[in-house]
Amino acid sequence: MSRRERRIFTEEFKLQMVTLYNNGKPRNEIIREYDLTPSAFNSWVRKYNATGSFKDCDNRTEEEKELIKLKKENQQLKMENDILKQAALIMGRK
User: How many Å apart are CA 18 and CA 54, to the nearest integer?
Assistant: First the structure.
């Protein structure tokens, strides 16, 4: 079985699908009629009903946002530490 090519859907299309579902059209009927994957459709419904947005950055919990911030800060500190180590090696040679 070959994999199908990844498709990209517009915000308007996603909103139409979620609206159809929220207005009572059966989930399986929408998925079959528009040839969607159940996981993608479920994700659209969950995200839109939770925050009114389909974007991942709008649907992150406070913990996820904090984790991303801390990972960036950690990466920055590691880079600064590596620079200081290199500088110490260079100064040690002189």
Answer: 11
Contact by Cβ (8 Å): 45, 31: no
Q: Would you state the structure tokens that stand for residue 76, as one six-digit string?
A: 């920055």
Looking at the structure, do residues 13 and 52 belong to the same domain, yes or no?
yes
Q: At what angle do helices 11-22 and 38-51 cross, to 10 degrees?
A: 80
**Can you say whether the dihedral through the CA atoms of 56, 58, 63, 68 is positive or negative?**
positive
As a whole number of angstroms, the distance between CA 78 and CA 5 comes to 39
- Identify the band that residue 1 occupies on the pLDDT scale cut at 50, 70 and 90: low
User: Domain tally for the chain?
Assistant: 2
| Same-domain status, 67 and 49 | no
This prediction's pTM: 0.61
* Cα-based angle 64, 66, 69 (whole degrees, multiple of 5): 110
In angstroms, the CA 92 to CA 40 distance is 57
